[in-house]
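Exercise: predict the fold of this chain.
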Amino acid sequence: MNKLLKLQSNIFLLISIIGLVLAYGLDPRENIVIMMIALGCIVVMGVPHGSLDVLFARQTFEITHLKNWVKFITYYLIAAMSIILFWIFLPNVFFVTFLILSALHFSDDLNLLNFTILKLSYGASIITLPSLFFSDQLIDLYAMIIEKQTATSLVNISQFIGVLITLLLAVQLLNKRINIRTKLETISVWSIFLLLHPIIAFGIYFCVMHSARHLIRSHFFLRKFSSKAFINALILPTVAVIMMGILVWWLDTNKDLEEDIIRIIFIGLAALTLPHAWVLQKSNFLAWSILRISRND
């Protein structure tokens, strides 16, 4: 494993342990400051990894002229807006689809190319495990995006799947061909989503595992670009997304700050996930990162 990825892995394992010690039994909805910190971290530390799509597009499609940039950005925004319209008109179908696609997207965090069952179990665990011990909290969160009755049914289904996923993970981790670091990372993700409030667990995972790992892999994949271009790509689109979120909140708000922010963040993430995944697929980034950067020792 690359040294930077190993460092990121060590930091994730450490923060997971610290989170389990300090945040066990903590409900951020009872403390607005903790809730805002958690959501702020998801935005500031999590969103930037998708901002690099501009460099992926430039490298993959060899975009140089303004006309081509306008065309790419227009298609990207149309895809994102289509997802939002999908939520408005078919919220239940939208949400289930989003959860499934998220599980598949998250399953690429680890180097599990030859372990398909474990790979899919890992991705699914991020979505389903919170339902086992935090069903009420998860229903409340889902009900901010879809109807509460549907949210309840979805969490009930997730509980059933979560039990199966837990068993699959436990059996797969006995496989001697899977190295110890991969096992530790899987157990850490498993632990935080089982034992911590869903918002806190997702904040730790999304910021310190998923986004951080993507940024490091991208650093190697996008070597042709200067550090300045890399930093600008991280900052400028992220600021634009944040400003757009603030504008949406200002124009159409329920005046319930917590609920508005959660809805904007997670629907926004859903809207950006599809075009983000498409750009990564076209760039052949995932296959490259697994074979070249994330190869186990």
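Check your answer against the key: The chain has one domain: 3-293.
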